Amino acid sequence: MKLVEITAPDFDVDLDIRYASENNFTGTPVYGRSACFLNEEAADKLQAAIRLADHAGFRFLLFDGFRPVEAVQALWDHTPNPDYLSRPGSGSPHSRGAAIDLTLLDRDGTPLDMGTEFDAMTPRSHHGVTDISSDAQRNRALLLGIMSAAGWDFYMNEWWHYQLFRPRRYPTLSDQAAGTRMMSEKTDAGE
Ligand SMILES: [Zn+2]
User: Residue 179 — left, alpha, or beta (φ > 0 → left; ψ -120 to 50 → alpha)?
Assistant: First the structure.
């Protein structure tokens, strides 16, 4: 299965790949390469979402796309919470290149207020809650509407997570199988 790298100029998005930095809930990089990959269907549906967002005056900031099975295992080992993370054995949609974590930016490049940060593992990150501001409620509805119209399914517990319908049509991939060099970048440098 071929993965598509999500980069400018083909994809007009900003990247803040959290698991390649210390700015994630584990406090340490989970993979070595700050890059975003999706399978071909997901890449096409992201393009559709980019067009809709642009027409409405917004752009996307991407936090994570393809997540090699090794990275899913590392996240689970740190925080084995099935409400917010996939059990390694069950196969995350992220390991199928079929899921994306993202938010909306306004024309100035400022992220919209979504009520919680990315990866906030609290009930307030769930869709349908009313204990966030009305602005945040509206912003989440905007993101949900754009992504739904572009053909994406949502996940009830995480406002930032979208995935293809029936993601199990696609296999889970290791870093080596995907050829993304996300886990191996550091050791390839000669360590
Ligand atoms: Zn996700």
Answer: left
User: May I ask the CATH architecture of the domain 3-188?
Assistant: 2-Layer Sandwich (3.30)
Nearest to 101 by CA among 155, 141, 55: 155
Residues contacting residue 89 through CB under 8 Å, at least 6 positions apart:
none
Domain ranges of the chain: 3-188
39 vs 42: CA distance, rounded Å: 5
Write out pLDDT tens, residues 113-154. 999 999 999 999 999 999 999 999 999 999 999 999 999 999
Residues assigned a catalytic role: 158
pLDDT tens-digit profile of 34-72?
999 999 999 999 999 999 999 999 999 999 999 999 999
What pTM was estimated for this model as a whole? 0.94
Q: Determine contact, residues 1/180, Cβ cutoff 8 Å.
A: no
Gap from CA of 185 to ligand 1 centroid (Å): 22
CA of 103 to the centre of ligand 1 (A): 11
